[in-house]
Design a protein that fits this description.
By secondary structure, the chain is mainly beta. The protein contains 6 helices and 19 strands. The longest helix has 11 residues. The chain is elongated, with a radius of gyration of 34 Å. It folds into 3 domains: about 170 residues, no CATH class; about 50 residues, no CATH class; about 110 residues, Sandwich (Immunoglobulin-like), CATH 2.60.40.1220.
Amino acid sequence: MGRGAAPRDRFCTFADNEAGLDTGNVYRGGGIYFSDCGPRVTSSILWGNTDGGTSVEEAQVYEGEGGHAEVDPPVYRYNCIAEFSQSGGDNVGNINADPLFADPAGVTGTPADDFRVKAFSPVIDAGDDTDISPESSDLIGALRNFDDPLTPDTGPGAPPVVDMGAYEYFVDCNLNEIHDACDLDCNATVLVCPPDCGQNAGEDCNGNWQIDDCEIDEFPSLDGDNNEILDECQPKIDHEETDDPFSVRSFSGYIDPRQESSDGVDSDLGITQVSFLFTEPVVSLATGNPVTVADFSVTTTGGTAPGVSSVDHSGNPTIVVTLDAIIPLQQWTTVIADVKSEATGYPIVDLGQLGDDDEPDRVDIGFLPADVDQSGEVGPFDILELRQYANLVITPPEGVLGDYIDINRNGVAGTDDPFDLLALRQLINGVSPPATKVWNGEALPTRP
């Protein structure tokens, strides 16, 4: 900056500049260099500027040999300046936190060299609102004083408070200089949209005015199955806790503890039906038509996996799958749905097997007679658990009492049927009938 003058820098961004030689043949003041004057710097950003070896602060703004007139000292108000340390007097509201430029590593002087700021930048709503006129625009013509509801106003003046720097922040994840809300809807009532809006609209499946691709780029975990669709927009099996019996709504991770045999010889009792509740109506992923037996598959941790004999979709999004055999004894059985949303065509979320966590596209069911406490291993605590259930000392984590203590499968549970306790003792000790073996100490394999 020239000698003797008192330049004023308002709403500027000085970034990634390199200082030239001064009169002493030294590189100084990569951002601002002044001499014999007191500049007024307001609501600006000085960051990433370099020179010939002075401190980081002096590389942003450097006072030359002429100094400044005592009657006209420099003033810094509400700026973001790297390692800035001056305070007192008129020097107020300055910060030295990373402004979070959108793409400062791009090719200098091209659109790829982007010194707009990203979400949660400390310069958002932090400028001097008393130093700007209404209806002002920024370097790309966007209106100033655009409020970011996720950022508290820290600058002076009435809200909405202007941002520091040459660009007013707005949500523009695809960096096309158009607010994402306008990209998604040219008639967005929250903004005045430019004529060329909507050219890169993309999807906003969850209706939060954010382009889905940008959300996934920022937070990859939102797309767990890596199919470029937000998981929350895809159908899933509803695994919320339920008070419905297992036969009405099959909850994943359930272990059937009821007797496996009617005569103590043949394993002829057990689960043959699984009832899925999806978060929305679904159709076949393969055909787009109503689901059929081809859209469900069954795996087990051992033994022979049953097939699917029929599917009832009349209550969609509740779909009942009937198996052609009882699920294998002392194993985990997994029934997998290969479906998609009837409304959007988005496929069901497929995260594979997650062990003890519930998977969005499948239900895991164990079969271990006498395992009342659902521990995966039979022991004396199962008797205690049955007594506590029967006397209503504890309540089922999901489902109904009969799912856990109707050991003899007669449809009666609790104190109304004392024979359940007898049947449990018989299973644990291997008394036939009903037991086909001694179940005490037996366990399931690890849940898939």
